[in-house]
Write a structure and sequence with these properties.
CATH architecture of the domain at 8-154 and 186-299 and 399-421 and 457-524: 3-Layer(bba) Sandwich
Number of helices: 12
Number of strands: 21
Radius of gyration: 22 Å
CATH class of the domain at 8-154 and 186-299 and 399-421 and 457-524: Alpha Beta
Helix content: 25-40%
CATH superfamily of the domain at 8-154 and 186-299 and 399-421 and 457-524: FAD/NAD(P)-binding domain
Structural class: alpha+beta
Strand content: 15-25%
Distance between the termini: 27 Å
CATH topology of the domain at 8-154 and 186-299 and 399-421 and 457-524: FAD/NAD(P)-binding domain
Length: 525
């Protein structure tokens, strides 16, 4: 955070007069990780963040004002999904807006994508675009990201130690049934006082998020600064490079200049910035000669299941996220997905919150009405499932060009998205549930989800990288094909979504491209 004895205007003016080596838009995992690397190289780095520092947070209600949501570290406006009949479905996605981005709320489960996620596969819509680099080339950067964020043998051993009788018995049953469950790698430094801050800011700083690991370390360096409460509006560019960042801070317009511009605002908002940066040279949006900016939007499924033991077992000592099951990730060529424990018991509060989210997606927004509608079902469900644990199943979403971010003047953010859940995705999610249930018997499993939900907090793919500039936005270094000084390092770059949380892959990719960005700065100096 910038500290100054002067006014906000004087701080902004001093930063505005500097020609930075790198300006980074967004301070989540991608932006903070690449910014730390560049700052350690001695480059002058300016972070721009729409949110601000958040020291404690929960999930505000849907009726909260944009200011209240930002104060809690969440994106201020709902995302808007445009339906095929012209109607809109508006809801708040689990997207952060704060120093550290969404990572300050994340569950800190950091897993690698599978080697098969980097390969070309055939889907019902055709053949996927290949990653321009191979999995083996990516492995060293996975290792570096794990070391940086604290995923090591000690953290895995701590997971083993904290497992309850319930967890251990379940893993034993899975092994008897032919599965290979593993402890879930979690970037939390557990100790006796750990509060397991899943879904909220960690006040003890034992959760290894992007703010703690990268951003604060970068800001200790003399040539690194940050402007919070800074809303980036457009990028000004000529035919070859970005010339300036147009932003607004506390009502004041800013023009900021850097040799390299790095977008890391997330797969919803980075393409939105590019699309609204239209000018005579770029009538379809910046870096969009291929018409691929905003396209190939992907999520993950978020199938929620209740699982309970055939006999009463102690949960004492059980952590929130402890078990990872990847046996169905690529089963006989059928890409079913991945299952992990959420560590939650199926209590009334958890179920009520889940049911409210489902009803909000059906455009019921009155909080009093929502509470009344879920009161009886949540009591009944808690009575039925009260001894159950909660598991989440994720299936890979495949890219489709018509699933996309678009400019939309009717929305508060100025953008909406179209998205269709395919029959193939539903089939794979159903089969994943059936296979998992079969392989944990005699433990019982039931779906809590009334229909297949999507994890709208995992957007990716909207500025994908590739060697063919006609079907991708970025080259293999995550630099825009069309511009010599523009990079994108959030989940937008991913050609495929895989079936695991993208955070570790984003961090690994940021570490991979950081030296290339530093080298580019030297050529533009």
């Amino acid at each position: 955070m910038i500290t100054s004895s002067g006014s906000t205007g004087s701080v902004d003016a001093a930063i505005e007069s500097t020609h930075w080596d790198a300006i980074i838009v967004g301070t989540g995992v991608g932006g903070a990780t690449v910014g730390r690397s560049l700052a350690l190289e001695g480059l002058s780095v300016l972070f721009l963040e729409k949110g601000t520092e958040v020291t404690g947070s929960g999930m505000p209600s849907d009726s909260s004002s944009p200011g209240e949501r930002i104060a809690h570290g969440w994106w201020p406006h709902p995302v808007s999904r445009r339906m095929s009949d012209g109607r809109y479905q508006r809801f708040f996605a689990a997207v952060g807006c704060a120093l550290g981005g969404s990572s300050i709320h994340y569950a800190a489960a950091l897993e690698r994508m599978d080697a098969s996620d980097f390969e070309v596969i055939k889907t019902t819509a055709g053949t996927t675009m290949p990653w321009p680099i191979g999995h083996s080339d990516f492995v060293p950067f996975y290792q570096a990201a794990e070391a940086l964020y604290g995923i090591d043998s000690a953290s895995v051993e701590m997971t083993w130690q904290r497992m309850s009788d319930w967890d251990r018995a379940l893993m034993d049953q899975m092994r008897l049934n032919g599965l290979r469950p593993q402890p879930l790698p979690v970037a939390i430094r557990y100790d006796e006082q750990c509060m397991e801050c899943i879904g909220r800011v960690c006040p003890r700083r034992c959760k290894r998020d992007a703010r703690v690991v990268c951003l604060e370390e970068a800001l200790k360096l003399p040539r690194c600064r940050i402007l919070d409460r800074c809303d980036v509006e457009t990028l000004e560019a000529d035919d070859e490079r970005v010339l300036a960042v147009r932003a607004r801070r506390d009502g004041r317009e800013l023009t900021l200049r850097g040799r390299v511009i790095v977008l890391a605002a997330g797969a919803f908002h980075s393409p939105h910035i590019l699309l609204r940066s239209r000018n005579d040279r770029w009538p379809n949006g910046l870096a969009n000669r291929s018409d691929q900016v905003g396209r190939n939007l992907m999520f993950h499924t978020a199938d929620v299941m209740a699982l309970w033991a055939p006999r009463r077992l102690s949960r004492r000592g059980r952590q929130l996220k402890s078990i990872s099951v990847r046996d169905f990730y690529n089963r006989g060529g059928d890409r079913l997905g991945y299952v992990q424990s959420m560590g939650l018991e199926a209590g009334r509060g958890v179920i009520a919150g889940y049911l409210k989210d489902e009803l909000r997606r059906r455009r019921i927004s009155n909080e009093v009405l929502l509470s009344l509608l879920v009161k009886v079902p949540s009591h009944i469900a808690a009575w039925l499932f009260g001894s159950a644990g909660i598991f989440a199943a994720m299936s890979e979403d495949y890219p489709h060009p018509e699933n996309r971010i678009m400019l939309d003047a009717n929305e508060a953010d100025g953008a909406s998205f179209t998205y269709t859940i395919t029959d193939d995705l539903r089939r794979r999610a159903d089969k994943l549930y059936e296979e998992f249930a079969r392989h944990v018997r005699p433990w019982r499993v039931t779906r809590i989800s009334p229909q297949l939900p999507m994890n709208y907090g995992h957007p990716c793919g909207t500025c994908r990288f590739g060697d063919d500039s006609s079907i991708s936005v970025l080259d293999r270094d995550c630099r825009a094909h069309d511009l010599e000084n523009l990079y994108v390092v959030d989940a937008s770059f991913m050609p495929r979504s895989g079936a695991v949380n993208p955070s570790l892959t984003i961090a690994a990719n940021a570490l991979r491209v950081a030296p290339r960005i530093a080298a580019r700065v030297s050529t533009l100096a």
